[in-house]
Amino acid sequence: MSEQDPDIDALQQRLGDVREEVGKRIVGQHDVLERLLVCILADGNALLESNPGLGKTTMVRTVADVTDLDFSRVQNTPDLMPSDITGTEIIRESEGNREFVFEKGPIFANVVLADEINRATPKTQAALLEAMQEKQVTAAGETYDLPRPFFVLATQNPIDQEGTYPLPEAQTDRFLLKLVLDYPSYEEERDIVRLYTEGGSQSVPPVEKVLTREEIKQIQSLVREMPIADDVRDRAIRLVRATREAETVDFGASPRASMGLVLTAKARAFLHGRNHVSWEDVEAMAPPVLRHRILLDFRAEREGLTTDDVIADLLTEV
User: What's the CA gap between 47 and 27, in Å, rounded?
Assistant: First the structure.
């Protein structure tokens, strides 16, 4: 990959334009937005944990708007069936003839927001995760490819767990990143209130499309070609392996985490306009890649340690 390649320079510039356009609707949350874009460029899916009312839907819908991607939202409830997500066969009459036709569900979009995934039953969760993994849906013996690029953002509410079906650890491992959205600062909240309660009649500020889906697919290919020095890659692998040996961890991360850490570091480097991966990229992506893939033991929980605390300690050791 050449730094002088004008196509790459133009694509990196457009990614900067994406962040500027999203900033017209979203105040603050720069780290979450960056990691959301990294996840899309790495062709992965993200699990987002936050309290209600912090702009998750607005952020994801805005990213879809400025990148010319189709957006759909699934509000998960205990009575939601797998076919409500993937689609179902219906009987359609035409000129006196009846035939079965597959009616595509909301999963057939480029960007799918699965709100409160832990409220869906395990059967429905499994159907969604299968579509995420295989990038296709099978119904009545027929296989239907999902549109590309394809990105699922599933949300969880950490404060209201009554009547929910928490995702097992083996399933959360399917998500490339776990993002945590926190409350805005006072200044940011003041700007949010001004943006959405003052001025013109439009409740949502307009944004422009600055990146096409074809360009996103092109970037996804370029990200995989991004060179990474052997010592940086090997250090990233040692970090993941250290989670399996840490005294505060019961279960460490799998090789899937090693692949995810290297790939997202490449995507972050591309997003920042560079043509190589630095250790800084690995450090930045370690928490969202690892936090949902390790289980702490009772001693760590008794001491009040979080997975992010443990990851930070391991980063200083490798």
Answer: 21
> pLDDT confidence of 200, banded at 50, 70, 90?
low
Contact 39, 176 (CB under 8 A): yes
Q: What is the DSSP string of 178-209?
A: EEEEPPPPHHHHHHHHHHHHSSSS-SS-----
CA distance 176 to 293: 10
- 111-131 pLDDT, tens digit per residue, is 899 888 888 888 888 888 888
* Cβ-based neighbours of 262, under 8 Å, separated by 6 or more: 228, 233, 236, 237, 277, 282
Cis-peptide, bond into residue 149, ω within 30° of zero: yes
Mapped onto helix, strand or coil, the DSSP state of residue 94 is: strand
Instruction: Report the run of H or E that residue 63 belongs to, with start and end.
Output: helix 56-66
**Would you call 27 helix, strand, or coil by DSSP?**
coil
